[in-house]
Write a structure and sequence with these properties.
Layout lengths: L7 H19 L14 H8 L6 E3 L5 E3 L19 E7 L9 E6 L7 E6 L5 E6 L2 E6 L6 E6 L6 E3 L5 E2 L3 E3 L5 E3 L8 E3 L5 E8 L8 E4 L3 E4 L4 E2 L5 E3 L2 H8 L2 E6 L5 E6 L7 E3 L5 E4 L2 E4 L3 E4 L7 E6 L4 E4 L2 E4 L7 E2 L4 E2 L1
Parallel strand pairs: 18-21
Antiparallel strand pairs: 1-2, 3-4, 4-7, 5-8, 6-7, 8-9, 10-25, 11-12, 13-14, 14-25, 15-16, 15-24, 17-18, 19-20, 22-23, 26-27, 28-29
Length: 341
């Protein structure tokens, strides 16, 4: 006479055991609650009795309590790489004597992500030195650097950008003459937005990267996230989110009076100051003001050379007749009353 328990509860237990056994045969490397998970005897008894819950972990390491085995794990995929910026520079790095420059970059690491640092030209050496840290060795800084982070099951995310102007854009000097922006040097005196005289402190020479360009009134080209100044002393650009979230508050490589590359922080404006540029806005110009009657957003190659200026005083100057920011900062200038603090 068979002693096998043929009750309904026993059949359910055997079915669960077979299902779990089949899962491990098909997934020999998988564990039900992550690599470090263990089950004590009470947990096993609860599992057999049908009272235990399954704990699944996503590839990013985020735990989701599904309560049962018939639900797939939910991935917590990142939407962007944040706080990507250069943090230090070094000439003639001794650990890589065949390269003239070394730039260290930082970003917010993502748990479980595979980080890859790249540039758009050959002849550079890119290394990840730790989570959220990498270095690029090169002969000069004329390249675009991109950080890409990939998590299994998610789309890759990356970051690169900088706001500026095209070569040939005319800058108004304090003496009333104009000079192409690429010919401006440290120490030049420029006309600020509302008549103040500001001095060029450093030269910013980024490439366009993944940013868009914007043409205003068919006569003035700018990267879409470079703030311009209105006649009523407000700030506008086509992509406020980009300048607020990907540019301000970060460090960038610039050139000093001796032509040496140095790292400076772009403090920026308060986020609420930068508004979306739209048709009808009266922008401040050399001749008073000019209404925005036409806006054209367009793209150019990632390797397009751009130019910007780090300014003193009100941190403003004029490009193609339009008043623009030049590395603004609110710790030493009062933009509410337009005067030094």
């Amino acid at each position: 006479m068979s002693s096998t328990d043929t009750s309904h509860a026993a059949r359910i237990r055997r079915l669960k055991a077979k299902t779990l056994s089949g899962y491990h045969v098909a997934n020999p490397q998988a564990r039900e609650a992550g690599r470090a998970a263990t089950f004590d005897q009470s947990a096993r008894i609860a599992r057999v009795g049908g009272a235990g819950q399954f704990i699944l972990r996503s590839a990013a390491g985020t735990s989701i309590d599904n309560g049962c085995c018939d639900q797939a794990p939910v991935l917590n995929c990142p939407s962007a790489v944040t706080n990507f910026r250069p943090t230090s520079g070094e000439d003639n790095p001794p650990e890589q004597p065949s390269y003239a420059l070394k730039l260290t970059y930082n970003w917010d690491a993502i748990s479980g992500g595979n980080e890859v640092l790249t540039t758009d030209i050959t002849g550079t050496l890119c290394e990840i030195t730790g989570p959220g840290v990498g270095v690029v060795y090169s002969q000069d800084d004329n390249y675009i650097v991109t950080i890409t982070i990939t998590i299994p099951g998610c789309s890759p995310v990356s970051s690169q950008t900088a706001p500026c102007f095209l070569a040939g854009s005319l800058v108004r000097l304090a003496d009333g003459t104009d000079k192409p922006i690429e010919d401006i040097v440290v120490g030049d005196q420029l006309l600020g937005a509302f008549g103040e005289i500001n001095t060029v402190l450093a030269l910013h020479r980024p490439l366009l990267g993944g940013a868009r360009m914007c043409k205003i009134n068919g006569e003035h080209s700018t990267s879409s996230h470079h703030p311009h100044i209105s006649a009523d002393k407000r700030f506008y650009c086509c992509d406020p989110d980009v300048v607020n979230n990907q540019t301000y508050g970060r460090s960038h490589a610039v050139y000093d009076a001796a032509g040496n590359m140095v790292i400076m922080q772009l403090h920026g404006l308060k986020p609420e100051r930068v508004q979306h540029l739209s048709l009808g806005v009266d922008l401040k110009t050399l001749n008073g003001s000019r209404k925005v009657n036409e806006l054209e957003l367009y793209t150019m190659p990632d390797t397009t050379q751009l130019y910007n200026l780090v300014m003193s005083g009100s941190h403003t100057y004029h490009v193609d007749g339009y008043a623009v920011t030049g590395w603004p900062r609110e710790d030493d200038f009062d933009y509410d009353n337009w005067q030094p603090k």
